[in-house]
Amino acid sequence: MDAAATGGGKRPRVAIVGAGFGGLWAARTLANTAFDVVVIDRNNYHTFLPLLYQVAAAELQPEQIAYPVRGIFRRTPNVDFIMAEVRGIDFAGRRLRTDGFEVPYDYLVLAMGSVTAFFGVDGAAEHAFRLKTLEQGIALRNHIMRCFERAAFEPDPVRRQRLLTFAIVGGGSTGVEYGGALAELIRGPIQKDFRAGRSGEARVVLIETRENVLPGYPEKLRRYARDRLRAIGVELRLEARVKKVCPDRLLLAGGTILPTQTVLWTAGVRGHSAYASWGLPVSSQGRIRIEPTLQLREHPEVLVIGDLSFIEGDEHLPLIAPVAVQQGRRAARNIMALAAGEPPSPFVYRDRGSMVTIGRGAAVVRLGRASFSGVVAWLLWLVVHLINLIGFRNRLIVLIHWSFNYFLFERAVRLILPRESSWVRQAQDTDR
Q1: Catalytic one of 59, 177, 184, 208
Q2: C-alpha 412: how far from its chain's center?
Q3: CA distances (Å), 36 to each of 32, 58, 80, 92, in order?
Q4: What's the Cα-to-Cα distance from 296 to each of 68, 109, 191, 322, rounded to whole Å?
Q5: In this structure, which of 211, 288, 320, 350 has its CB flanked by the most CB atoms within 10 Å?
Q6: Sheet holding 257-259, edge to edge
Q7: What is the pTM of this model?
Q8: How many Å apart are CA 401 and CA 50, to the nearest integer?
Q9: Is residue 295 classed exposed, middle or buried when 0-12, 13-18 and 19+ CB atoms within 10 A define those classes?
C-alpha cells in the first residue's frame, strides 16, 4: 500500500520523519509552499521536551506538554501526517518502509532524535531510568511515588534508605533541572504527605564526572548552580564516575557504593543502533554523518537534522532544541533551493543563549556574553518556555500550575497512574 503525501502527485513530495523540534519546524517552513509534505511519527503528538522533567517531578500532566500533530497543521492544506514507525529506506526507489506501508518521497528529512547513551557502563541499560519520552516521564514519576508509599511502612531502616535514595547520573541541563525539581518535591509536598519525608531520610544525589555541573556555561553560572543545588538539599558527587548500576545499588569508581533503587541516567545521547542497518553512514556515537548543507553525501535528496545529525567539524554543536529548530528551517530552505535548481546553503548555528532552571525562583541564563542568575533569570526562563510551548490551552494550564506551585509550594500531580507495574523504566527509548 502506498501512502502519498497530499496533492495530485506532480508537486515535489517531502517526507519528514519525526515530529520533534527539527521535524516540526521543517514542516512549518514548508507550509503553504509548492510542496506536498507528510510528517511521519510513531506518536500522533509533539512533545515539548524541555518540560518533560516536570512531568517526572509531578509538576505537570503529560498532556500539558504535548500537542497533536494534526492539530498543529489543521489549517495547512499541503501538510499531512502519518502515524507509523519507519523501518528502513529504499534510497534507489525513494520510498520509506514503515510498519504498515511504504511512503514515496522526492526529498526526505530525517529528524528522529536520539536515544540514551550509557557509554558501556555495566547494568545501566537494564536498571537505569531514562527521560526522553512521555512514557518514561510518567514511569519515573510513578516509581518515585511508589518508593515513598513503600517506605512509609518499611520497618527495616536499610531497605527504607535504599527506597528513599534517588541518584541522577549527569550534571548537564536535564540532570540539574530534575535534581532541583525532585529536591523541592521532597522537601515540599512529600514532606507534608509522608513521615519518611519529615524525618529527612530522602536523598537526591547528583553524580557528575567533571569538576562542576553545567559544562559549557560560564564559570560564575556553574558556581551558582552548584551552590543552589546544595542549598535545596541535593548532594553533589563531582569528579565521580559510575562503574556499575545494579537493581539495588550504584557502584562508583574507587569502590564507593550508593544503595538505591532509583537511578536516572541523563549523561549522554546517541543515535539508534538500527540506523546503520538502513544503509546510513553512522558515526561511532550512532549519529548520521552529513555535509555542512545537512545532506547525505551519497544521497543529496536526503537531509538529516537535530540530535541525529553529525557534521564533520561541527561535532561539538549542542544537542538542544534551538539547534534542531534552526536545522529544520535550513533543511526546508535547502529543499526549496534544490527544487529550484539552486545550490543549497551550509548550516550555520546562531547561538542565542541557553538557560536552566534550578527549582522555584532560581535559574541561570546565558545570552551571548551576558549572563544572569537568580529570580530575574528564572522569570526569563518562565517567559521563554511559555512562549515556545505549543497551544494556548497548554500555556494557560502550565501557567496556572506554575503559579499554584510557586505560591502554595504544592504539586498537584502526585498520582500513580496507571497502577499496573508494567510502566517500568524500559519504556521505548526513542523520540520518533
Answers
A1: 177
A2: 23
A3: 9, 40, 8, 20
A4: 30, 10, 53, 22
A5: 288
A6: 242-246, 249-252, 257-259
A7: 0.90
A8: 16
A9: buried
List, for residues 84-139, the tens digit of each pLDDT value.
999 999 999 999 999 988 999 999 999 998 889 999 999 999 999 999 999 999 99
349 is written with which cell numbers?
Answer: 548555528
Dihedral sign, CA of 208, 209, 212, 214? negative
Q: Which domains does the chain have, with CATH numbers?
A: 13-114+271-339 (3.50.50.60), 144-268+353-408 (3.50.50.100)
421's CB contacts (< 8 A; 6+ apart) are: none
Taking a C-beta distance cutoff of 8 angstroms, is the pair 384, 66 a contact? no
Q: Measured in Å, how far apart are the chain's first and last C-alpha atoms?
A: 22
The answer, yes or no, to whether the previous bond of 418 is cis (omega within 30 of 0) is yes
Across the beta sheet with 79-83, the strand order is 79-83, 36-41, 13-17, 107-110, 302-304
- The conformational region for residue 7 under phi > 0 = left, psi -120 to 50 = alpha, else beta, is left
Unique residue bearing C-alpha cell 558515526: 283
Q: Which helix or strand (DSSP H or E) is residue 107 part of?
A: strand 107-110
177 is catalytic: yes
Closest Cα to residue 89, out of 65, 109, 71, 70? 109
Query: Bridge partners of 282?
Result: 288
Residue 66 scores a pLDDT above 90: yes
- Using an 8 Å Cβ cutoff, are 242 and 254 in contact? no
* Nearest residue to 59 via CA among 414, 395, 423, 416: 414
Spatial separation of the C-alpha atoms in residues 379 and 199, rounded to whole Å: 33
d(CA 404, CA 269): 34
Type of residue numbered 343: P
Task: Look at 425 and 309; give whichever has higher pLDDT.
Answer: 309
The span from the CA of 205 to the CA of 256, in Å, is 13
